[in-house]
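Record now logged underneath.
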Amino acid sequence: MTETGLPTYLTRQFALTRPQLATELGAELLSLCQTVTADGRLAPEEIAGLRQWLGDAAAAEMQSARFLRGVIEHVLADGRITPEEYQEVYRAVEAVLPFEARQQAHAARQQAEAADLSAPAPASTVTVAVVGAAQANPAPVLDVTFMVAGVRQDGRPALIEQHASAGLAVTLDFASAGSHSGEVIAVQLPGGAQIGFVPAAESRQLIPLLQPGGHYSAHIVRIRSSGRSPIPVVQARFFPAGIEAAAPMAAASSQPLAAPGRWGRMLIVLAGIGAALLVLAVLLR
């Protein structure tokens, strides 16, 4: 048995073959798998990126891609990932890699696990200064990191290469009614240029918070350049209405998912007024 829990003769058939590695798709999958296993750990946005790439119809023809997609879909079925499931996905990625790359990924994982075991336990005491800092910087109601979807269309690769960079603030806004299914929230640069969309899984969490009266901060954490086009990784933090945070925040967009009629616009205005009056009543207590 191997560390993936499957017999060796079964995991061998999932590894990328030489003919597959000679194709553009196979080379891209190899590069992506090597990138996400470079530090011996998997981050949530890396699993989301793998899922996004594996969702490509062209990837369905490769047995290694089908195997890896099946593992990721199984892990994400309940909407959360446990530490054990992170390891399950990592080992599935190892099984997809050719021998030498698999050895490197395995060594990186062992090194990361050893570092975790030797790390000192966090202190159990909390100083007054830390408490004061926590009060000055309110905790977000949601903190999510994702890889921007839809970056290959409409000349966005060049736009990202020229104008996007780590640390740059971005805005989230409801996409136009003509967008494809799942492309609900657009990611925009400071000048308003659109670089892609929030992935569908994360959009379901953000839609209730991206309403009038809400506040959030969003910025590019880094830009992944291992695939055919650069992919920005964005962190978005949403805060309770009426809370001022130390970091600059944007007001949530008031644009609806689809162009509303007159009554729809009136309801949105009334909802915004109601939210403002509620915040004012709380502040005047």
User: Anything to note?
Assistant: The two ends are 65 Å apart (CA to CA). The longest strand covers residues 215-224.
